[in-house]
Amino acid sequence: MSIRVRGSILGPSSSPIHSIQSPKTPSFLTLPTYFSSKVCSTKRVWLKNNSSFSSHSILPASTNLRRRNCVVKTEHKVVSDIEENSVKLKVKRKNLAVFVSGGGSNFRSIFDATLNGSVHGDIAVLVTNKYDCGGAKYARDNGIPVILFPKNKDATEGLSTENLIAALRSYKVDFILLAGYLKLIPTKLVQAYPKSILNIHPSLLPAFGGKGYFGIKVHKAVIASGARYSGPTIHYVDEHYDTGRILAQRVVPVLANDTAEELAARVLHEEHRLYVEVVAALCEDRIIWREDGVPLIQSKENPNDYR
């Protein structure tokens, strides 16, 4: 099987858009602060391995890395964070735009991952169709600019599709992540960011997808169908609801006496984990496109393995 890698396409930067809602307070520094001393403290890190604990000292910190480098020794191998960071530094750090319509729990998980070093990227801007939703409030509280989109007919604020694209390019956005965004993405935006827009859906697509299938409605439909399994799907976005190429899925059981709320909680738990893993691969350029147009995730540990 031959593999072809295709990168994302970025447009030129443009001037700032005045209708972008930015926080009044300055954006806080998203990078951790490091000590410049050559000798670290004697604080020890305790790691659980096969029901036994072992401690490991932290190696000297380096100011040119995103997080402290330490060597973790297990019974089977030694994994060096220094080596991992060296690989990440060779890849350009990605700028991300996240689209939300509600509380934004997946957005928060991804944001946390950008801060702790799990994701080699930064959330440059948040886009929402509901300016007062929980996700938008969380973004403003954490210094992330918020854009209202789409523009309602009677609203004085909000951007048109053309202005949104210009705004995203002004933020040098590499990838767009939909995280509970309930509006259909315009064709012009899909064309402006080919193979660069991801969505997460709370069922195993292509089952229980399409217009009208969102939130708790999905889980009620899964239970009513008698399906024994469900789970989140991450897929690329095209001009229709939930029909883009599938990139990753995670399976959870549907229990005999499940309520829609119980199933939703089980699926959401896996959503948070799966989306972070996929965004990490995306930011490290580990998404490989097979010749037949199927996207695969290249393993970090073994570049010859795909899933």
UniProtKB/TrEMBL annotation:
It catalyses: N(1)-(5-phospho-beta-D-ribosyl)glycinamide + (6R)-10-formyltetrahydrofolate = N(2)-formyl-N(1)-(5-phospho-beta-D-ribosyl)glycinamide + (6S)-5,6,7,8-tetrahydrofolate + H(+). Residues 1-21 are annotated as: Disordered. Transmembrane segments: none annotated. It comes from Fraxinus pennsylvanica. GO terms for molecular function: phosphoribosylglycinamide formyltransferase activity. SUPFAM superfamilies: Formyltransferase. Residues 94-279 form the Formyl transferase N-terminal domain. Its main location: plastid. GO terms for cellular component: chloroplast. It is found in: Plastid, Chloroplast. Its EC number is 2.1.2.2. Keywords: Chloroplast, Plastid, Purine biosynthesis, Transferase, Transit peptide. This is Phosphoribosylglycinamide formyltransferase, chloroplastic. Pathway: Purine metabolism; IMP biosynthesis via de novo pathway; N(2)-formyl-N(1)-(5-phospho-D-ribosyl)glycinamide from N(1)-(5-phospho-D-ribosyl)glycinamide (10-formyl THF route): step 1/1. The lineage of its organism: Eukaryota, Viridiplantae, Streptophyta, Embryophyta, Tracheophyta. Residues 12-21 have a biased composition (Low complexity). InterPro entries: Formyl_transf_N, Formyl_transf_N_sf, GART, GART_AS. Gene3D superfamilies: Formyl transferase, N-terminal domain. CDD domains: FMT_core_GART. Belongs to the GART family. GO terms for biological process: 'de novo' IMP biosynthetic process.
